[in-house]
Specification:
The protein has two helices and eleven strands. The protein is mostly beta strands. Strand 3 and strand 4 form a beta hairpin.
Amino acid sequence: MKRAHTLTAACLSALTITQASASITLSASDDNFVYSSSSSTNYNSESTQIYVKNASTDRIGFIKFDLSSVIASLNTSEDATLDLTFKNASSAGSGDTANFTISALTNTGASNTNWTEGSVTYSTRPDGTFTSVGTYSWSYNASNVPVSITFSDIADYIQTDNTITFRIFGTQTDTSNNFYWHSSEAETAAYQPSLTVIPEPSAAAILLSLAVLGIVGSRRSHK
């Protein structure tokens, strides 16, 4: 006789973990920096680095992600994680410091959200309310530092064209220093900016998980 079997608490827990661990990682669609003293200049969009500096004039970095391919299944009540890598600083000396704020452009009153890395300038940069989602504090000699930022309310930053734009702005103790972040053209893939989002649990995924649990239950049954 075959014994009846039920889904145990451990099995249900495994199902929950399977659903919760689902995620999608996107690469940046565009990234570049703009320079306030050269307001109509578009800088090298194929550069492997994003130049960020706050001196007598500002160099501000921008990074954009296109969510169009996943927007229909995106769970906007879940957190999202932005991963960046600080590359290095030039001309820096011992004791120098810098602080960077990473902000997301809200979707209320935003403008120039359709910017591209090949055309953006200081005059045409994405504009509106930027909300800080995280910070990074640099200290002397730090290089190739991963910066992972998890933030909530992702729906507040998704523009009508299904993109999210982030801004990197820095302040430093010595304004002669130059600071760089890895861009989407970085030769090392792990250094390239990425955004991890969570999709809605799909019916297919749930059925697959139940099927796996059914297989486990079948193996445990015996005559």
